[in-house]
Specification:
The chain is α+β, with helices and mostly antiparallel strands. It contains eleven helices and nine strands. The structure holds Dihydroxyacetone and zinc ion (ZN). Zinc ion binds next to loops.
Length: 271
């Protein structure tokens, strides 16, 4: 059996959480990531018959029975994952009842998965229906995106439109747009259901006055979606109070999307 500390998926979790912490997006225990793994790749590092603990999830994830995820721990700090992955991360498998997580590795101090597991697993279910290659759900608190939710109307169309206007590449990176939820209590099934509903349409979901969710086939794609929104939100916050002398007009956004041959949310433009 190979040493799990050398597994590429543990390395990726370490690198990504450290990077996000350094960007200032994941203060204290802010943020969480879940990454669906292939059984074969995990079997190189762990005995899949050895369940360390069983942890109830509090909701039904029947569609994910047998699926394995590496997930950040509840109350754990992104800044600490790099130095102690075995305490701050865990590898879980959804048990046959669909409502229990079997711990295969990690949460060494007796901990458990992120409080946002409902939003994560429900989002995985929603995205897998749209794209069977989806593997990553990422939640974080990027500063400018969060700032923008304080001053900008929280509608899918208007929020997406403003972000698309900020830099030319936005419509290319997320032609499907951004779903936006109002402020809600976090860490429960209700926000999980609301997030997953948006994930049926969008790979990006903003939580008003809280943060953002991203979904993608790998860590780079998912992180890239979120950092592109954050860059645009930064430009918005740097310029919102100034006269806008130049903007990308809707016919120009359409032209970019068409130049790249993209299926985009035409209903989010005013043409
Ligand atoms: O896990 O970010 O939304 C900490 C959070 C909760
Ligand atoms: Zn959060």
């Amino acid at each position: 059996m190979k040493d799990i500390m050398t597994a590429p998926f543990v390395e990726e979790m370490k690198r990504t959480t450290a990077n996000m912490y350094r960007l200032g997006w994941d203060e204290r225990n802010g943020g969480n990531i879940s990454y669906m793994l292939e059984e074969d790749e995990v079997a190189e590092y762990l005995d899949l018959d050895n369940v360390i603990r069983e942890i109830p999830t509090g909701f039904d994830a029947t569609e994910l029975i047998g699926k394995i995820f590496i997930v950040t721990g509840t109350g754990k700090y992104f800044k600490n994952v790099e130095v102690d992955p075995e305490t701050n991360l865990g590898i879980i498998r959804i048990a046959k009842d669909g409502t229990t997580a079997e711990l295969l590795w990690g949460y060494k101090d007796g901990g458990k998965f992120t409080s946002e597991l409902p939003a994560h697993l429900m989002s995985h279910m929603a995205r897998l229906k749209k794209d069977p290659k989806n593997r990553v759900i990422m939640h974080t608190h990027p500063t400018y995106t969060l700032a923008m939710t304080h001053v900008h109307e929280l509608s899918d169309k208007k929020f997406t439109h403003t972000i698309w206007e900020m830099c030319t590449e936005c419509i290319v990176v997320f032609p499907d747009g951004i779903g936006v939820l109002p402020w809600m209590v976090c860490g429960n099934n209700d926000i999980g259901i609301a997030t997953a509903k948006k994930m049926e349409e969008f790979r990006l979901v903003v939580w008003g006055l809280h943060g953002i969710y991203g979904a993608g086939k790998d860590m780079d794609e998912t992180f890239g979606l979120i950092e592109t929104v954050e860059k645009a939100a930064q430009l918005y916050m740097l310029t919102a109070h100034m006269p806008h002398v130049n903007t990308i007009l809707d016919p120009e956004l359409k032209a970019v999307a068409e130049a790249f041959g993209l299926e985009y949310r035409k209903d989010f433009l005013n043409l």
